[in-house]
């Protein structure tokens, strides 16, 4: 999922609002915060064993806790939310230790956001049951473990509940059915097992249900008539079996994300999916779906991300009617597309194209995509593509990966533009000739095996298998060149 909120106006707006919030919290909360809240927060800090980036440095006894980093107060100087975020791109941006139960002293807390702190550990925080005003819980991307208690059903007021990205195991308690105010339920990735409790159908306000990357099993319950607001459904990376339940058709008006990849689902892709007017992302990859892709897919005019790879789907693939697709993966089915589809070639915004083993027979120079600027991944492996890749790679500036193994590409490797962003290059099993250029040493992964390359290899750390099966390559990791 690529979000594009990085335009300058957004930053400006964010900064502007942020300044107002900061200023108002400074002025309104001139007095010190409630003693219970201060004690609760200091109790939390005292159990933290490592805070290398100084996230809690401002949490000092005797200072107004409403001004501490991550703390928000409303009326009466009572703490209403705790928001601590680790920055995923900074290795020392984490907290270690358990979540102290002393947070139960914060009786006015309505939001607890402990996100990307990575090393916050321990069991499910039972003190949540003692917080009468709690509405939002996001304990995400930490290291909590153990079972989710049955008493979870007591948190009936909750509006959002996320334990995403921890190591919780055991079943999803059936008492989750009592959380009828929930609009967001996020429990993946974790290590949860067993079936999806049928009682989840009581959560009629759900707009966001993500249970991806767990060990959940059994059929996907046929209860989707109960979620008129559902916009995001992610069940990818579990062990679900059976067919796509027919009631999913009830989600047609609003569903934007349907992700069922990496399960063991089978049967045909249902025709009604073509009626999903708001569908942005459809991932059915790595299942056992068979038959044709429904002709109704022509009606998916707003789809941006389509991944049907690694199933048993057959021709004909429908001519799509999209204005622009961002990422497409149809690899490893039984398609014989013959050429790269026109609706792909004409997309102005595509950044990831994966059509491995799609029965494409063409000369690569004959492919003239409208826009190559945004491409970061292209995988055309295991087709019958001839000609040269030099022209295509010259037209991309942001390419990170290019895979074209198992084709009949014939070009001089020294003419290939290897931009500094390129990290993965696999042109093994083609008819590539010339020498291996020095520039490949900057790649993270390279495979040029089984071509017609010759000459001394530059110094790299790739294994011999990346170079084997060529005409006359020599030098480490292959045997030395004869002098
Ligand atoms: C993460 O937390 C565990 C348990 O609290 C601790 O043993 C480990 O050293 C911590 N890791 C880091 C990098 O602080
Ligand atoms: C959950 O609610 C039940 C019934 O109100 C109560 O008996 C029980 O103690 C509560 N459990 C927790 C952990 O708060
Ligand atoms: C769904 O889960 C997959 C991983 O299985 C993840 O890559 C994707 O970002 C998730 N999408 C949403 C909307 O949560
Ligand atoms: C697309 O939708 C229109 C109306 O919503 C319908 O008449 C048409 O049959 C659909 N096309 C396909 C191929 O399903
Ligand atoms: C590709 O770019 C390289 C370096 O900029 C240039 O030498 C070469 O002529 C270009 N090849 C084609 C086919 O555009
Ligand atoms: C390169 O590709 C060949 C043949 O496809 C394969 O046997 C070999 O393991 C690969 N080596 C690397 C380093 O990827």
From TrEMBL:
- Give the range the annotation lists for the signal sequence: 1-24
User: How does this chain sit within the bilayer?
Assistant: Single-pass membrane protein
User: Which compartments is it annotated to reside in?
Assistant: Cell envelope; Membrane
Instruction: List residues of the Leucine-rich repeat-containing N-terminal plant-type domain.
Output: 36-73
Keyword annotations for this protein, in alphabetical order, are: Leucine-rich repeat, Membrane, Repeat, Signal, Transmembrane, Transmembrane helix
Q: Does the keyword Transmembrane apply?
A: yes
Q: Which GO terms describe its cellular component?
A: membrane
Principal localization reads other
Pfam families xref list? LRR_1, LRR_8, LRRNT_2
The entry sums up its family as follows: Belongs to the polygalacturonase-inhibiting protein family.
Q: Which PANTHER family does this chain map to?
A: POLYGALACTURONASE INHIBITOR 1, RECEPTOR-LIKE PROTEIN KINASE 5
This one is known as: Leucine-rich repeat-containing N-terminal plant-type domain-containing protein
């Amino acid at each position: 999922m690529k979000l594009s909120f990085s335009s300058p106006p957004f930053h400006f707006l964010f900064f502007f609002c942020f300044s107002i919030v900061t200023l108002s919290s400074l002025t309104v909360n001139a007095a010190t915060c409630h003693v219970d809240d201060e004690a609760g927060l200091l109790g939390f800090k005292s159990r933290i064993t490592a805070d290398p980036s100084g996230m809690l440095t401002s949490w000092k006894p005797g200072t107004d806790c409403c001004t501490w980093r991550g703390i928000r107060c409303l009326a009466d100087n009572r703490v209403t939310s705790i928001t601590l975020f680790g920055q995923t791109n900074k290795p020392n941006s984490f907290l270690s230790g358990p979540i102290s139960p002393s947070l139960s002293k914060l009786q006015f807390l309505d939001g607890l956001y402990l996100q990307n702190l990575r090393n916050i550990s321990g069991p499910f925080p039972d003190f949540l049951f003692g917080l009468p005003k709690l509405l939002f819980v996001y304990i995400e991307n930490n290291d909590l473990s153990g079972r989710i208690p049955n008493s979870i059903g007591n948190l009936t007021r909750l509006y959002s509940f996320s334990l995403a990205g921890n190591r919780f195991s055991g079943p999803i308690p059936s008492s989750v059915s009592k959380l009828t105010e929930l609009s967001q339920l996020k429990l993946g990735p974790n290590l949860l097992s067993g079936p999806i409790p049928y009682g989840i159908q009581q959560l009629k306000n759900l707009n966001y249900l993500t249970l991806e990357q767990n060990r959940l099993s059994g059929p996907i319950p046929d209860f989707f008539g109960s979620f008129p607001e559902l916009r995001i459904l992610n069940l990818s990376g579990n062990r679900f079996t059976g067919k796509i339940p027919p009631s999913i058709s009830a989600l047609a008006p609003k569903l934007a994300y349907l992700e069922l990849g990496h399960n063991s689902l089978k049967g045909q892709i249902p025709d009604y999916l073509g009626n999903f007017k708001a569908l942005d992302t459809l991932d059915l990859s790595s299942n056992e779906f068979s038959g044709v892709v429904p002709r109704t897919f022509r009606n998916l005019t707003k789809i941006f991300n389509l991944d049907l790879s690694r199933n048993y789907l057959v021709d004909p693939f429908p001519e799509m009617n999209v204005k622009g697709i961002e990422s497409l993966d149809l690899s490893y089915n039984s398609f014989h597309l013959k050429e790269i589809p026109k609706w792909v070639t004409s997309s102005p915004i595509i950044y990831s194209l994966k059509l491995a083993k799609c029965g494409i027979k063409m000369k690569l120079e004959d492919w003239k995509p409208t826009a190559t600027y945004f491409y970061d991944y292209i995988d055309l492996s295991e087709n019958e593509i001839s000609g040269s890749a030099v022209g295509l790679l010259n037209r991309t500036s942001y390419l990170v990966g290019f895979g074209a193994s198992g084709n009949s590409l014939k070009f001089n490797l020294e003419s290939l533009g290897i931009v500094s962003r390129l990290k993965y290059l696999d042109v093994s099993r083609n008819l590539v000739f010339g020498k291996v250029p020095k520039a490949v040493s900057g790649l993270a992964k390279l495979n040029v095996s089984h071509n017609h390359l010759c000459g001394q290899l530059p110094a790299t750390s790739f294994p011999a298998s990346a170079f084997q099966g060529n005409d006359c390559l020599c030098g480490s990791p292959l045997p030395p060149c004869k002098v």
